[in-house]
Amino acid sequence: MNDDPEIYRVLGRLESKVDSLLDENHRFEKLMKETANRVSKLEHDRALVFGAASVLGVIGGAVIWVISKIMST
């Protein structure tokens, strides 16, 4: 069997690159999880704002309707 030091050097560089790729993948997965959490929170907040706007619209319409009934009599 040939114990060429060049083979071990190349294998060491490959191992280093694989470790680097694994670290980068881990950082990417963490970033994606954080981004998904942020998007979820934004979607929830948006739904609350739309709900509040709908309620205020209904209340405003009812108030205007009552005022128009009072003024027409």
Task: Please characterize this protein's 3D structure.
By secondary structure, the chain is an all-alpha fold. Helix content is 93%, strand content 0%. It has one domain (1-73). The longest helix has 68 residues, at 5-72.
Number of helices: 1
Secondary-structure content class: mainly alpha
Shape: rod-shaped
Number of domains: 1
Q: Summarize the biggest pleated sheet.
A: none
N-to-C CA distance: 107 Å
Poorly predicted tracts of residues:
none
User: What is the helix/strand order?
Assistant: H
Total strand count, please? 0
- Chain-averaged pLDDT: 94
C-alpha Rg, in Å? 31 Å
Helix % is over 70%
| Proportion of strand residues | under 5%
Helices and strands in order:
Elements: H1 5-72
Quick structural summary:
93% of the residues lie in helices and 0% in strands.
Main features:
about 70 residues, mainly alpha, 1 helix
